[in-house]
User: Fold this.
Amino acid sequence: MFYESPHRIEKALASLVEFLPRTESDGAPQLTKMHESYVAGTPAEVAEYFRAHPGEVRGEFVVIVSL
Assistant:
C-alpha cells in the first residue's frame, strides 16, 4: 500500500504494469473525502480506467497492490 500524487499516478501504474502485471491492484483517489472513488483490477486495467476518466485523476491516491 502506498500514497501517490495525481501528478505521478500514471508513472506509478506504468511501473506496476511492467514489474507486477498479474497482481490485483486498487486505486482509490481522494479516499475518505467527499468525491472518493475506488477502482480495482490488474495494474493495466486500473491505468486504463484513469486514462479513460481523466476527471478522476485528482487529489491523493491510495494504491493497494495484492501479491
Notes: The beta strands are 2-4, 24-29, 39-41, 61-66.
